[in-house]
Backbone:
């Protein structure tokens, strides 16, 4: 596999991708932008400046959104209050990270600044969480992939999940 990340000079990270991989990454980043709507804040200028959200703060019913924005507390009331103060900003951050991947991914060799590399790391994590939730991934994923026929309609998604795991590991090692 030629894709992945390595340590560059001056704190930068070197990325290498083939055109098909860039197309997949951009598609996944676009998917994330579609899944995570922008954070909504109230019309109050102070609340908007602080990123305080609107609504009742209820946990998302969608399993993917519930995984991306988990409850911070077991108590529903405390969790709703925490969500009200944090979710809009978290949504905006996830969207910004996905946008960074979408805009900076290109085929061949290119460099990411330390800030871009951190955004990529967060975006790769979000993509893995999203795909893993949809696929109901367990710790036995590698055994499942090894025994799965390439004709299985789930095979491309499982292999994509595994590739995202490899990329995330590669990026962590490059940043370490």
Residues:
């Amino acid at each position: 596999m030629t894709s992945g990340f390595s340590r560059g000079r001056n704190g930068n990270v070197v990325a290498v991708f083939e055109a098909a991989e860039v197309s997949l990454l951009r598609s996944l980043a676009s998917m994330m932008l579609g899944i995570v709507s922008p954070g909504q804040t109230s019309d109050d200028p102070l609340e908007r400046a602080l990123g305080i959200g609107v609504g009742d703060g209820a946990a998302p019913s969608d399993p993917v959104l519930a995984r991306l924005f988990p409850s911070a507390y077991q108590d529903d009331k405390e969790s709703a209050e925490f969500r009200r103060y944090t979710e809009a900003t978290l949504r905006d951050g996830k969207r910004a990270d996905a946008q960074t991947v979408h805009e900076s991914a290109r085929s061949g060799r290119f460099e990411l600044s330390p800030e871009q590399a951190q955004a990529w790391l967060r975006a790769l994590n979000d993509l893995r969480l999203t795909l893993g939730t949809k696929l109901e991934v367990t710790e036995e994923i590698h055994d499942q992939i090894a025994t799965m026929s390439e004709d299985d309609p789930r095979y491309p998604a499982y292999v994509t999940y595994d590739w995202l795991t490899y990329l995330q590991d590669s990026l962590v090692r490059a940043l370490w």
